[in-house]
Write a structure and sequence with these properties.
The structure is a single chain. The chain folds into two domains: about 140 residues, Transposase Inhibitor Protein From Tn5, Chain A, domain 1, CATH 3.90.350; about 80 residues, no CATH class. Strands 1, 2, 3, 4, 5, 6 and 7 form a seven-stranded mixed beta sheet that branches. Helix content is about 35%, strand content about 20%. Strand 5 and strand 6 form a beta hairpin. Helix 4 packs across helix 5 and helix 5 crosses helix 6. The model has no long low-confidence stretch (mean pLDDT about 85). The protein has six helices and seven strands, in the order E-H-E-E-H-E-E-E-E-H-H-H-H. By secondary structure, it is of the alpha+beta class.
């Protein structure tokens, strides 16, 4: 499954996804002025010359949108923000054509909102057998990934990786995502009711942040370390438990 914005809308990419040994479903936006055609009519075997690759030109989606004869279907689907939303949709299988590239078979879905809360838009899938509701669901599901990346950058300082090899980048980013998730899961396990908050005199917060979750996990792990004993002649200084806890708390909240 490959879901992307309008920059992924290319007939050549549709062909590539369909020709793979394990075909990939490509879902993206479709321009309202995209050139769509019917399937070519069967040709007699006795007729010479190349066989046609596409049939009659279909009205583009902008025309269908304003055509009073277009038959819309009212559906209720899970929309952005996790809420149910009533939508009017119309869908059909077509050949998508762009000059210089053989036409590709797609299933497109034209969507409009009865409340006019967003502009009419269209999506497509490289699998012509996909259901319209599923195509919309796949595209809307992409929003969770985008929000995750945005919040990781804004709240956790997640940045673009500095490695050059592609394999290193492919390893580092998922590992960071996994570590962030592991820290949150451990913090919720250690403190299922309320996570301890670190307050300062210049900033008061009412909810726990990731730094609180990380500090809670660090404190739990460091309290259970088994330190080896020093030699008898070592220069030892006993640290009061209160001072040790203060130093540990500072270390838990360090970068």
């Amino acid at each position: 499954m490959l879901v992307g914005d309008g920059s992924y809308a290319a007939v050549a990419l549709v062909h590539r996804c369909q020709r793979l040994k394990r075909p990939v479903r490509l879902v993206s936006r479709l321009r309202l002025d995209a050139v769509l055609h019917d399937e070519p009519m069967p040709q007699s075997k006795s007729k010479r010359g190349p066989k046609p690759l596409k049939g009659a030109r279909q009205p583009n989606l902008a025309v269908r949108l304003n055509d009073p004869t277009t038959v819309w279907q009212r559906v209720t689907l899970l929309w952005y923000g996790g809420e149910d939303k009533a939508l009017d949709i119309v869908s059909e299988g077509s050949l998508w054509y762009h000059r210089g590239t053989p036409p590709g078979r797609i299933r497109w879905v034209l969507v409009r909102c009865p409340e006019n809360s967003f502009e009419p838009t269209a999506f497509f899938c490289s699998d012509p057998t996909a259901k319209p509701e599923q195509i919309i669901g796949w595209f809307v599901g992409r929003w969770n990934i985008e929000v995750t990346f945005e919040e990781m950058r804004a709240q956790l300082g997640f940045e673009t990786q500095r490695q050059w090899p592609d394999r290193a980048i492919e390893r580092t980013t998922p590992c960071l995502f996994g570590l962030f998730s592991l820290v949150v899961a451990m913090a919720l396990t250690l403190h299922p009711k309320e996570l301890p908050l670190h307050q300062t005199s210049w900033y008061r917060k009412t909810e726990a942040t990731f730094s609180d979750a990380l500090a809670a996990v660090r404190q739990h792990l460091w309290n259970n370390f088994k330190f080896g004993t020093s030699s008898a002649n070592a220069d030892l200084r006993l640290i009061p438990s209160a001072l040790l806890q203060t130093l540990q708390q500072v270390a838990c909240y360090s970068a």
